[in-house]
Amino acid sequence: MSAVLPPLAASQAAPGFWRRARGHRAFVIGAVLTLLLLAAAALSLVWTPFSPYEIDMAGKLQTPNGQHWLGTDPYGRDVASLLLVGARASILVGVIAVGIGLVAGTALGLLAAARRGWVEELIMRLSDFSFAFPAILSAIMMTAVFGAGIVNAIIAIGLYNIPTFARITRASANTLWSREFVLAARACGKGSFSITVEHVLPNIASVLIVQATIRFAIAILAEAALSYLGLGTQPPQPSWGRMLSEAQTLMFQAPLLAVFPGVAIALAVMGLNLLGDGLRDLLDPRLTRKR
Q1: What does the H/E/C string look like for the chain?
Q2: In degrees rounded to 5, what are phi and psi of residue 132?
Q3: How many CB atoms lie within 10 A of CB 169?
Q4: In the prediction, which pLDDT does 14 show?
Q5: Cα–Cα distance measured from residue 109 to residue 170, given in angstroms and rounded to the nearest whole number
Q6: For the chain, how big is the Rg over CA atoms in Å?
Q7: What CA–CA distance (Å, rounded) separates 219 from 91?
Q8: How far from the centroid of its chain's Cα atoms is residue 241's Cα?
Q9: Phi and psi dihedrals of 9, rounded to 5?
């Protein structure tokens, strides 16, 4: 007996999910903000008002006008174009870094729950050790050895995500290994690997999706912080964090240079957090029954 919904039940549940999703304010706001972030990144692939790499010292520090909608930076580059291309860098870092943590962390968490004993203890202690090196500290250490760059930032953020996903996966999977449908599968002669793939993983997928959405927001924030410190995205590639770093010396002369990337980071992080909170409410069966 499996707790996974059969195809017919799943198809019947989908319309109910979207009907409830439309009435969930946090989910709707988060989805809209996240779609705007994705749309900005996608738009930058085919069009920007100006080239984000073109320097025009004669037109530097312009205020918003008809030609440059959000003004220009100290190098005469169009701020709107920089924001659009910067969204692309944030999404790239978030997707790869969260992907690293999701794949590796989920595999380790499932292994710990399935094997238990010294295997579980070893994985959990390694996770505890990893938490002693946050993303920014890891990036600083990697920069000292390999040099600054977006690749090292992605690796540092990704490695920091692994223990988080490992712990969540292990805790969620442990609650399922004592359930009746898992015991029935074991009685039928299925091995640990088959049970993990066919029964455990599908039933914790919603938890992992919610956590991945929240970690995506944290990854964007970490990338901005690393770029602000000069450890993330390197020139001439635009980055929201580096835009903030370049604007800090011009706070009184051109304060909008700090406002625009700061608002972009805040909206992106808020949107992903609201989306994650909304998904958690909508995918939690206990909350679903209450609605």
Answers
A1: CCCCCCHHHHHHHHHHHHHHHHCCHHHHHHHHHHHHHHHHHHHHHHCCCCCCCCCCHHHCCCCCCCCCCCCECCCCCEHHHHHHHHHHHHHHHHHHHHHHHHHHHHHHHHHHHHHCHHHHHHHHHHHHHHCCCCHHHHHHHHHHHHCCCHHHHHHHHHHHHHHHHHHHHHHHHHHHHCCHHHHHHHHCCCCHHHHHHHHHHHHHHHHHHHHHHHHHHHHHHHHHHHHHCCCCCCCCCCCHHHHHHHHHHHCCCCCHHHHHHHHHHHHHHHHHHHHHHHHHHHHCHHHHHHC
A2: -75, -10
A3: 26
A4: 58
A5: 4
A6: 22
A7: 9
A8: 16
A9: -65, -40
Here the tokens at position 222 are 């970490």
Q: pTM of this prediction?
A: 0.88
CATH of domain 15-290: 1.10.3720.10
Interval 228-254: pLDDT, tens = 988 888 888 999 999 999 999 899 999
pLDDT band at 191 (very low <50, low <70, confident <90, very high): confident
Distance of CA 103 to the CA centre of its chain: 13
